[in-house]
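ASSEMBLY PREDICTION REQUEST
Request ID: AP-0331
Submitted by: J.K., bench scientist
Number of chains: two
Total residues: 901
Priority: normal
Notes: Please return the full assembly, not individual chains.
Input sequences:
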Amino acid sequence: MEAVSAPVIRELSKHATTGAPDARRWRYFSAIVALIAVIPLLAVIYVAFFPTENIWPHLWSTVLPRYLKATFFLMLGVGLLATFFGVTSAWLVAFYRFPGRKLFSWALLLPFAVPAYVIAYVYTDLLEYSGPVQALLREWFGWRTPRDYWFPQIRSLGGAIIMFSLVLYPYIYLTCRAALMEQSDSLLMASRSLGAGALRTFYRIVLPIIRPALAVGLALVLMETLNDFGAVSFFAVQTLTAGLYDTWLNLGNVGGAAQIAALMVGISLALLYLERASRHKSKSYQSGGRTRPLTPAQLTGKSAYIASTFCFLLVFFGFLVPASVLGYYSIEYFDVTWNAEFFRLAMNSLQLATIAAGLLVVVGALLAYSQRIAPSALNKSMARLASVGYAMPGAVLAIGVIVPLGALDNGIDGVARDYFNISTGLIFSGTIAAIIYAYSARFLAISLGSAESGLGRITPSMDQAARTLGHGSLSILTKVHLPLLSRSMLTAAIIVFVDVLKELPATLILRPFNFETLATYLYQYASDELLEHSALAAMFIVATGIIPVILLNRASTAKQY
Amino acid sequence: MQKKTASVFKAALFTAFSLTPLATQAAEEVNVYSYRQEFLIQPLIDTFTNQTNIKVNVVFAKEGVAERLKREGANSPADLVLTTDIGQLQELTDAKVLQPVKSDVLNANIPEQYQAQDDAWFGLTARARVIYASKERTDVKSISYEDLAKPEWKGRICTRSGKHPYNIGLIASMIAHHGEAKTEEWLRGVKENLARKPQGNDRAQVKAIKDGICDVSLGNSYYYGLMLTDENQIEWARAVNLIFPNQENRGSHVNISGVGLTKSSPNKANAIKLMEFLSEKLAQKMYSEQNYEYPVKPGVEPSGLVLSWGEFKRDELPLYKVGELREKAVKMVDRVDFDG
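STATUS: Completed
Returned structure:
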């Protein structure tokens, strides 16, 4: 296959497929999926505007400014630090050769595999007063009480910023590295031959090039930061997510929680807009035909040493330390933790992840296919609408799922009583269905994006050939496209699978009674300072998380067909 | 067209029936939603089942039971809710998901102080909110909750989140005795004296005292027993004395774990049997042996370990008043930014 750029394909497929006889049905399908995906968002907004008790004045006069402030500073801090980590490492790996570069180019992605709440537990365990680090210091210096010396509080806003940055910078590293790798040599050569130093080249050439890619990575980092509940609640950092949880489950006030949720939705949509807008820009930034691929410059002496050390420290603190601590505890407490309970948890987690991944791959593929078969502006906006859940924090989605499902259950029950004189009871509420719904709304964007890019690489002439042979849309999909799509769909399935394994806030709120997953179990044990007893669960999550890291790395460095 | 839609809808409904088991109306069952942990509840339930042949299904939860019962409405399978404190009982009351129970057995076993005014909930066990004080760095013999706001404790107090039900219960009782303005002043004073931001659970505070991070902490009485019988935590417990506050005046604040019957209870008669069983001597004794709590039924002795901590004077304030003031207490914690 020769290279055909995406816009050209889109153009072609428009002409090739508008005439599909069953286009309307495909558009209906998109509209229905979009509607289902957007219901949680609408529900949150509805409850926020019609709360049963007006808690808004209390929230505004007391905690809300605090939640907003903590959220703002957390996002600001993580944004700056993760950008520093991500851009620096991407720039080093893309433009220079230094010892270990090949290894670091993928190892820098490893912290991806560690959820923020897990790294928070691990470093608290290491760095708190009774942890090994401070104990060692006390031994060395002969200190006896906390009043003898100063040591930074890990459980603080600053601690949270460092924790989040360590595991989220890979988003920025990944997007920026891809943008830099696409550059031709000529730019750099020009800059260098004009005598600009490395730093000046960085500011004048590199930064403008990566700005759009950085915006995408940064938006993802900030969404994840806003989404987290485990780490911030453990560190007692009062963000909006923590506040939402508190308002709902401590004050028992869904209305107030929905109002906080609506605020979070606003922030998320702003981030989503930022990401979309910069994606558009990035198209115009890409240099046209590649003149010469990038040849990294060899670093020597001190600068090579600094580059290697910088990359090593990121991998060390972001992955090696947490993995070692969890590994140590897992082995140490293996006899205690490797039991029927653990299997039950693992089975619950795997069950949820498998169902969600399977469902989303199918729906994502069909939705992307609908775009191909029945392209129209409206259909396109339906697909965008369907992916909006990705920007919704899990805790927000939980409210958005609970409210409509409860109404639906009681509605069906009412109808059944009226018509058949029987009670249907609760069909969806408090069951796995509710959790799966929340996951689907949140992660549909992943499988949709994957399917779209996969389909984009299949030339429309294939569709035409199949049509001439008398195949309908579905049959073309199953016989022609799916075999070609299988790889990108598998990737999407794995990413969704792992995201579900890690998901905490929505799972905590929506899980059926007596139903624990690895993540919720870990959260409860670790917040009771019993990390060692749940390390095996954490290890399992981290180990599984490494698989998509490898795939992501492959995908981002693979040759474009 | 309309007809078609209707038939599709009917088909969907019938499918739904075939998939959902109706709320279990089996002859001899009780369904329980429990905030209380499995290790504690399971032995009690096994004993009950052995005695009565009534099967008990329990689902354990950490939070959100009231929210869930509200959403399940008339269709909820739950008969009983077991709670870990008065705040949760109040939450269920506010959600209007409980119904009153008229039972001579419960009224005989459970003192007025530990019952809802309309008999919608009953306390089953009592625990004191005590002060743990470092053996090494304090020589406190007697102390009151009010003392914790005094300057001498500056930088020496640890506690879990002010929003936690156990602290909310204590703050609500302070409001009942002193009024809002004075209590708020007191709460600000305690916040001033904290050695660190509120974090962790009650046991983590005792560990912090052992580590030398603070000198006194607030905690429930039964944790002392749980730590003393846990080989990993016995060292923490040995570093502190358990002190019952306010022995010179009104007595220590007591919170309860309790039970309520749901409005929608499908197995009402059996559910009340289980409630009564939990208020009788055997179950009361088991609670104390398992979790080092104080029985509510007069004349039942607590476990030996609990007895060894000595007699103490209890605050006589009825628990329903603590419940009623819960929301005021929560909002006060917000205003003071106690956790910040």
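REVIEWER COMMENTS: Residues 30 and 271 of chain B are 6 Å apart (CA to CA).
SIGN-OFF: pending second reviewer
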